[in-house]
Specification:
Blueprint (H helix, E strand, L loop, with lengths): L14 E5 L3 H13 L3 E6 L2 H10 L4 E4 L9 H11 L3 E5 L4 H9 L5 E3 L4 H38 L4 H12 L7 E9 L4 E11 L2 E5 L1 H8 L3 H9 L7 E3 L1 H10 L1 H10 L3 E7 L7 E7 L7 H47 L11 H13 L6 E4 L6 H10 L8 E5 L8 H6 E2 L11 E2 L1 H4 L4 E5 L9 H10 L1 E2 L8 E2 L3 E6 L3 H6 L5 H7 L2 E4 L10 H16 L5 E2 L1 H9 L5 H15 L4 E2 L10 H4 L8 H15 L10 H5 L3 H11 L8
Parallel strand pairs: 1-2, 1-3, 3-4, 4-5, 12-19, 12-20, 13-16, 16-19, 21-22
Antiparallel strand pairs: 6-7, 6-11, 7-8, 9-10, 10-11, 14-15, 17-18
Helix pairs in contact: 5-6, 5-11, 9-10, 16-18, 19-21, 23-25
The chain binds adenosine-5'-triphosphate (ATP).
The site of adenosine-5'-triphosphate has 19 residues, from helix 13 and helix 21.
Pfam family, one: AAA_lid_14
Protein name: Sigma 54-interacting transcriptional regulator
Keywords: ATP-binding, DNA-binding, Nucleotide-binding, Phosphoprotein, Transcription, Transcription regulation
Length: 657
């Protein structure tokens, strides 16, 4: 019968594989097809043969009998054809219901009942060809849409987590999953990990699981997670179904834990090798044992190049943003440093007590031990901190200074540990705390004795766990910082009085350096005087050669409650008044009674004594804080410290309490 004329011409080079165990039927089919212009391969009498033939030469279409030689049926081969996306039409005399149900599950492109007519065969093949071409085109369009959607989602300005959620949703129609992990594994700048996962809790409903929730659910510590994460091999894009997945889990504790926690049986992994630090990945998991097929792998393969470029760009922007935020904070900090004029390190003196201090600095500096610098106010504790930092391996990184007494109590936590945008009223922008700023370097916690009790456990945590948590943050951030603390209080007594945590004290006091008061190293007075006069002369543009003998004698006899800072201020005043190159003191030096002169020895309750001292100094200076005749000079503290003290003690400028 000239059926060929009724049908559209056979597309060029179409090869049909005949899988049929009856020789006569197979031959019949071959003749029909060849007459109609098809090329044929086979016949294959068993699934094993069919597999071999189709792997040698991929057919465009397959005519498939159900019952074949050997243990496997045409339905088994149909599943393989589906994974390979090769269209097929069943040719069978078997139409019983249970077989037909199985047939339907394989989603064939047609079904021919034996015996068949030539025309039926050709029409079925043509329809199959058309449907397949159409399906391929639709799929290609969908895949292109998916690619566009993913790229635009990833480049949208917005919250990172929402962006990840949208990416996960976009994959839903294409790749089955019950659990999906997506994101960036590590981030060198903040040493945090920015991934999250989505766990199916309904047909179309997912629960977002952030890293910290993941740790809670799996009972892992951050450290353990990081350790077992490193054991997961980088295998590139790969699917693990059923037993493959079980084997993979046996070798990887992290995978095993994920599988047990969420009861998963298969896994499809797409890592993106980005040029930036840290890898971006999308990991699909399913509760089904065999869901991940070659078409899923090939879809991800197609998406990989474009996604890699996009993620790379995204990470580069992200890094720039983080670096500029860090730079901005560092600039602010440095500007503040320049203002306070603390940007130098010249420790003058040759007395045995000071030489002993130098020796201690030399011993401890190269280590990473915490250092506790103790000494009365104005003895040069900050200079010691700088010296330790500058002689350590952290020299190239920042030395960040925090004056614990000058921080407003309500902002101290945010200053130290940072906060996320919107984490409290007034937190309009994200802020990197001083600890993060000091990452890789040193933090100098001046006046540590003033750190409020409630914040002390947080500091202890940094020392113990080497991690911090921003206010409103999503979890701990590893933080590699060396701590140098300083105090003019006797911390041991503060511990006994319950004002300072003992555990924190012992952690800080690993290597104590005790700075001698100036009165115990009077032999350094000439050297220090010469040094300061030289500096002051330069500032004032005056020629100053030295100090008069009587003034030096007075200085030698003086008690120096304000130590070197007091000496510096005294010489400044004398230098301003000086009319000759040899400077004489502008005021007599009277040794004040010890109780008033040594703030750390006050017998009254700390706050009361402090308030009385501050008020007395303010009254004496007519509430002037700064400058030569200001209360800060009288109290031998920095003006900023005094201002902060006044806020803390509730002392207003006019003197009201
Ligand atoms: N040995 C020294 N040589 C030169 N200058 C010094 C020396 N020791 C201290 N100074 C100067 O004295 C002033 C006070 O020093 P510093 O601020 O380090 O003291 P401190 O002990 O930290 O005081 P406080 O406890 O009030 O914060 C600074 O201007 C510092 O440069």
């Amino acid at each position: 019968m000239p059926t060929k004329a009724l049908l559209a011409p056979v597309p060029a080079q179409q090869t049909v594989l005949i899988v049929e165990d009856e020789f006569a039927v197979a031959n019949d089919l071959r003749l029909i097809l060849e007459r109609a212009g098809y090329r044929t391969s086979g016949p294959a009498y068993s699934v094993a043969e069919a597999l071999e033939i189709s792997q040698q030469h991929r057919p465009d279409l397959v005519l498939l009998d159900i019952h074949l030689q050997g243990p496997e049926t045409g339905i088994d081969f149909a599943r393989y054809l589906n994974t390979e996306q090769i269209p097929f039409v069943f040719v069978s005399a078997n139409t019983n219901t249970s077989v037909l149900d199985e047939v339907k599950d394989t989603q064939p492109y047609g079904f021919l009942v034996k015996p068949f007519r030539e025309k039926d065969v050709l029409v079925a093949l043509e329809i199959a060809y058309y449907r397949h071409a159409n399906r391929v085109e639709v799929r290609l369009r969908e895949e292109q849409n998916l690619q566009l959607k993913l790229l635009s989602t990833l480049t949208e300005v917005g919250e990172w987590e929402q962006c990840l959620q949208k990416v996960a949703r976009s994959f839903e129609p294409f790749i089955p999953f019950d659990y999906l992990v997506i994101g960036l594994e590590t981030d060198e700048i903040l040493n945090t990990f920015r991934s999250c996962s989505f766990f199916r809790i309904g047909t179309d409903e997912y629960q977002m699981i952030r890293p910290e929730n993941f740790l809670q659910m799996t009972g892992l510590t951050l450290e353990k997670y990081q350790r077992i994460r490193r054991q997961v091999p980088y295998n590139g894009l790969a699917a693990y179904n059923g037993t493959d997945f079980e084997l993979f889990c046996q070798q990887n504790p992290l995978l095993q834990l994920i599988a047990n926690t969420f009861r998963l049986q298969s896994h499809l992994m797409m890592p993106l090798k980005t040029a930036q630090n840290g890898g971006f990945f999308i990991a699909f998991y399913s509760r089904q044992p065999q869901p991940y097929q070659p078409q899923h792998v090939s879809l991800l393969q197609q998406l990989q190049p474009a996604l890699t470029v996009t993620v790379d760009r995204l990470l580069a922007f992200d890094k720039i943003e983080q670096l500029s935020e860090q730079l901005r904070q560092e600039n602010l900090y440095l500007a503040e440093e320049v203002k306070t004029g603390a940007n130098y390190e010249e420790i003058i003196g040759a007395s045995p007590t000071l030489l002993h201090v130098f020796k201690s600095i030399g011993q401890v500096a190269p280590t990473d031990y915490s250092v506790l610098v103790m000494g009365e106010t104005g003895t040069g504790k900050e200079l010691i901190a700088r010296a330790v930092h500058n002689r350590s391996g952290r020299k190239g990184k920042a030395l960040i200074k925090v004056n614990c007494a000058a921080l407003p109590p309500n902002l101290i936590e945010s200053e130290l540990f940072g906060h996320e945008k919107g984490s409290f009223t007034g937190a309009f922008e994200k802020r990197i705390g001083k600890f993060e700023l000091a990452h890789g370097g040193t933090i100098f916690l001046d006046e540590i004795g003033e750190l409020p009790l409630e914040l002390q456990p947080k500091l202890l945590r940094v020392l113990q766990e080497k991690e911090i948590e921003r206010i409103g943050g999503r979890g701990p951030i590893p933080c590699n910082v060396r701590i140098i603390a300083a105090t003019n209080r006797r911390l041991q007594e503060e511990v006994e009085a319950g004002r300072f945590r003992a555990d924190l004290y012992y952690r800080l006091n690993v290597f104590p350096i005790q700075l001698p008061p100036l009165r115990d190293r009077r032999e350094d007075l000439p050297l220090l005087t010469a040094h300061f006069l030289q500096k002051i002369a330069k500032n004032l543009g005056k020629q100053l050669t030295g100090i008069s003998e009587t003034s030096l004698q007075q200085m030698q006899a003086y008690h120096w409650p304000g130590n070197i800072r007091e000496l510096e201020h005294l010489l400044e005043r004398a230098a301003i008044m000086a009319t000759t190159p040899t400077v004489s003191l502008a005021e007599p030096l009277l040794a004040p009674p010890p109780a008033e002169t040594t703030p750390i020895l006050v017998a009254k309750p700390r706050e009361q004594a402090e308030r009385e001292n501050v008020l007395a100094a303010l009254r004496a200076t007519n509430y002037r804080i700064r400058g030569e005749n200001g209360a800060a000079v009288l109290l031998n503290v920095k003006p900023t410290t005094l201002e902060a003290q006044m806020v803390r003690l509730g002392i207003k400028r006019e003197g009201s309490l």
